[in-house]
C-alpha cells in the first residue's frame, strides 16, 4: 500500500502532500524534511528508489518537481514508478501540458485528481479515460455553479486589477 | 513581464473550469514561492494564519469566500503549519448543500483530520446523508471521505449503506464502495467478515475498473487465508489470460500494454494462491509462460510485469521451464544500464536463489559491480542478496564487507539493521570462535548504541554457555580469547555503553578464571571503566558487580584479597550514590568482603551464570505468616482485579488495538416513539441535545450515557453487524512484573537487572582482504572476490542450520581460507571505504561536457517523438523541455539543475576550464533569478507525453 504521496520542488518546497497512513503534523514535517534531504541530493542515473525506515520511497523527477510515493517493502517499485507516471499523464491531460505552476495554484485540483486515482493508498482506477470522465463530470457541476455566481466577470475583474 | 504571464496563466485556468482564486490568495502563493528562506516562509505563513483567524471569526462570511479560506487553510497545513483553528469550518462546509462547497469541505477534512480526531463525529451524520444522495458525485465525495475518516468505531454507522452501494448503477460508485469496504477490512477485519461473498461477486462486474478494484481487498483476504479461495484460481488465471489477450477496453491500455496494473495485481494474488500448491501452480504455468513471451522489456511497465512474474514464479511450485525464463529476465535486468532494473534484478536473484542456488554464479561479476556501485540503494539491495546467500564458506568475506559498509554510513536505521544481520550471520556461520569474537567486537564498537540489547545478552550467554558442545576445553579457550580481546580494547576511549556492559560482565565472570590475569589487574581495569564512564550508571553497575564477582572468587578460593585503593574509593563514592541501584551494589560488595570463604562461595558460586534458579512464584513460603495474620484479625487480600472489577475503565490503554473510546455515539436517528417504551430512568439519563449550529434531521446522542443500562431498550439496528458499541470487558491482565523483577534480582551474578543501552568494542585492525582494488576493469582481484563469494554457492544452503558452532569450511571452490587464524590478524591499514571505490570505478560516468549534451538535446528536441518512456532514468530527456517555445533562459535553468545534480560525479571529470566556471555562474544566476525555474517554462511535461 502507498503510505503517502509527496510532491516536492527541487528547492525543497512542498507542492502537495497526501497521507494515507496516520502521521501527526510533527511527524509529517519530519518526514518531509528527511526525505527531501535524501532525494534531492541523489544524482541522476541512480535508482529511483530509496530505502527508508523499513519502507521504500519511489520517486521520479519531472522537470523541477519530484513526485515521491512511500510504499511497503513487498510492493513492486517499478509498478509504483508507473503509477506516478500515470498520475502525471492524467494531470497533463487535465491541465493541458501541466507545469509546476499549475500545481502550485491549483493544488486542490491536483488533490481531486489524486483522489480519483488512489484511494486509501491503493490504485483504484487504471484507466485514464475513466478518471478524466469523472473529473470532468465534477467540473461541469463547478461550471454550473460558476454561472450562477456570475464569477467569470469576477475573474476578469481580478485579472485586470 | 513575468507577472503578465502569470495573469495569462490564471485566465487560462479560469477558462478550464477552475474557480479563480482571489488576488489575495494568489499573492500568498506567489510570496511563498518567492521566499528565499524557510524563516521567511514561516513569517509569511504566520501572518496569513493571523489574517485567516480574524476573517473566519467575522460574521456572515459569504460561502464563496469561506471556500477560499478553507483552501488557504489546506495550503498552510501543507506547508507544515498548524491550521487546527479552522478545522471546524471545514467540517461545517461538508454540511453544505452545494456540491462544490461540499466537495471542498470533504477535501479539507480528509486532509486535516486523522481518523481518530474528535471532529469526525460531526461528519458521520453528513456522510450518512450523502451516501443516500441521488447525485452520484455526492456519493463519490462521501465515499472518498469514508476511506480516510471512518475508524473502527464508526464503521457500523455507514457499513449498511456502503454495502448497498455495491449495486449502484454507476461504476464509479461501485468501485469506491469496494475500496471503502477494503479500508474497513484493514481497520477491523471482523466488521466485514460477513461480506466476503460480495467481493467475490464484484469480481465478475461488467466494468473492468470495478473488477480491478476488487482485486485489492481480495489480495488482502487471500493473504490472510489462502485455502478458502483456492476455487478462484482458475478465475484469476482466466482473467489474466483475457487481459493479456487484450479483451479489455482499449482505455485500460497503458503504454501499449493491456491493463498492466490489473495484471500485476493478478500476479500478486496468483503468487499467494500457488504457493506450495501443485495443482494451482500447474494451472498458472501456461499463462505465466505466455506473459514472458509477450512482455515488452523495452518499457518500464513491461519490466514491472516481468518482475512480478519472477516473483510469482519464485513463490509458486517451481517449473524448470519457467525458472529458466525468469533467470533470463533477471540476467537482462542485471545487464541493463538502468540502475532501476539492476536493482530489480538483484531483488529477483535473491528470490530465485532460494530455489536454484546455482543461478547466482553466472551473475557474480554483475553482483560485485552492484556492490561497488556508488548508489546506496543498489548497494543495500546487494547486501540483502549477499545476506541471503551467506554460508560458512563465504561468511567471512560477506560479514567483513557488511561491517565496512556499516562503519561508513550514518543512517541509524539501516546501521541497526545491517548490524543485526552481521550478528545473525556471525552466530550462524562463524568459522571460529576467535573470528566470532572479533566480529562481534567490531559490530559493537561501531554500532553498539544501535544494536538491540538482546544481542548483547546473547553474546554474554554464548560466552557463558559455550557453543553448546560438550567441549569444555573449547569453551574456556573461547572465554580466554574474549577476555584477552576485551582487555586490549577496554582502554580505548569512548566505547558504547552496551559494549562496556558486555566487557564488564565477561571480565567479572571469566577474567580470573584460568589464572592468566591476576585479580588486582582485572579489578584495576574495571575500576578504570567505572571511573571513565562515571555518568553511565548502567556501566558502573556492571563494573561493580564484576568487581564483586572477582573478589568473591578470590575469597572463595581462599586467597587473601587486597582491595585496591581506587576500588576502595569507588566503593565509598558509590555508598553515597544517588542511584539506589548503585548504592545497593556497593553495600553488597562491602558486606561480601567481610564474609568468610564458605558463605561467599554459596552466595556467588564460581561460573554459575548458567545455573537455573528456582523461584517460588506463588510465594508459598509466606503462607504460614499470612495464616497467622488472618487468624489475628487481618483482612484477607483482595486482588486488584476483584476490587476494581470490570467497571475500571482506565486501564485499557492497549497500544495495539484500537479500543473503543468512551465517547462512542449512536448515529441512527431516533426510533419512532412507541407508546409503551418510555421508562423513567432512561429519560432522566438522556440529556436534551444541545442545539447545534447546523440543522439536521437526526441528532447524535451520546450513548456513553445510555449504553450499559439501556442498551436493551434502545436497540441499534445494525443488521447482522457485530456489536461494536458497548464497553468490552477489559480485564486488566494481572501483570507478573513484580515476580519477574524479583527473579532477576536474585540472579546469582547480578546481571539481569540492567536496562537497555548500547555497547561495543574496538579493534580497528582489519584482516587484509582481497577486495581493495581500484581498477575499473574486471581485474583478478575482483574475480577473486567473486570466487570467494560465489565459490561454494553450488553447495546447498542447508548448512545454515548448523548454529554457529560447526565450522566446517564449505567444500566449494572457495579461495578464502576458512582455517582459523592462530593469532590475531596483524593490524593493517583499513581497506578504503567502499564508497571511495565507486568513483574511480564509475564506468557509467561519461566524460562528456554537459553543455555538449545539451546542444545535442536541442538539436534532437524537435524530432523527439515523445519517447521519454524508453529512457527511464534519463534525466536530460526528462528535464529538458522539447517545445519550440522554450526560451534559452529556462533551458539554462534546466541545465544548471542537471549539472548541479551531477556535480558530484562530474567534478573529477570536468576540467577547470571556462566551462565549469561558466556553469557555476549560470547556476548562481538562475538560482538568483527564480523561485521556480519552471515559471518561465510552462510546458515541461511535454517531452514525456508527446
UniProtKB/TrEMBL annotation, chain A:
It comes from the Eukaryota. Keywords: Cytoplasmic vesicle, Golgi apparatus, Membrane, Protein transport, Transport. Its main location: membrane. Residues 1-140 form the AP complex mu/sigma subunit domain. It is found in: Cytoplasmic vesicle, Clathrin-coated vesicle membrane; Golgi apparatus. GO terms for biological process: cytosolic transport; intracellular protein transport. GO terms for molecular function: clathrin adaptor activity. Gene3D superfamilies: 3.30.450.60. It holds the Pfam family Clat_adaptor_s. It is a peripheral membrane protein. InterPro entries: AP1_sigma, AP_complex_ssu, AP_mu_sigma_su, Clathrin_sm-chain_CS, Longin-like_dom_sf. GO terms for cellular component: AP-1 adaptor complex; cytosol. Belongs to the adaptor complexes small subunit family. Adaptor protein complex 1 (AP-1) is a heterotetramer composed of two large adaptins (gamma-type subunit and beta-type subunit), a medium adaptin (mu-type subunit) and a small adaptin (sigma-type subunit). Subunit of clathrin-associated adaptor protein complex 1 that plays a role in protein sorting at the trans-Golgi network and early endosomes (TGN/EE). The AP complexes mediate the recruitment of clathrin to membranes and the recognition of sorting signals within the cytosolic tails of transmembrane cargo molecules. PANTHER family: ADAPTOR COMPLEXES SMALL SUBUNIT FAMILY. This is AP complex subunit sigma. The lineage of its organism: Eukaryota, Viridiplantae, Streptophyta, Embryophyta, Tracheophyta.
TrEMBL record, chain B:
The keyword Transport applies. Residues 728-746, 762-773 have a biased composition (Low complexity). It is found in: Endomembrane system. Residues 60-594 form the Clathrin/coatomer adaptor adaptin-like N-terminal domain. GO terms for biological process: intracellular protein transport; vesicle-mediated transport. Signal peptide: none annotated. Residues 676-875, 888-921, 927-946 are annotated as: Disordered. It comes from the Eukaryota. Transmembrane segments: none annotated. Gene3D superfamilies: Leucine-rich Repeat Variant. One of its GO terms (cellular component) is AP-4 adaptor complex. Its main location: membrane. SUPFAM superfamilies: ARM repeat (SSF48371). Coiled coil: none annotated. Belongs to the adaptor complexes large subunit family. Adaptor protein complex 4 (AP-4) is a heterotetramer composed of two large adaptins, a medium adaptin and a small adaptin. Subunit of novel type of clathrin- or non-clathrin-associated protein coat involved in targeting proteins from the trans-Golgi network (TGN) to the endosomal-lysosomal system. This is AP-4 complex subunit epsilon. It comes from Arabis nemorensis.
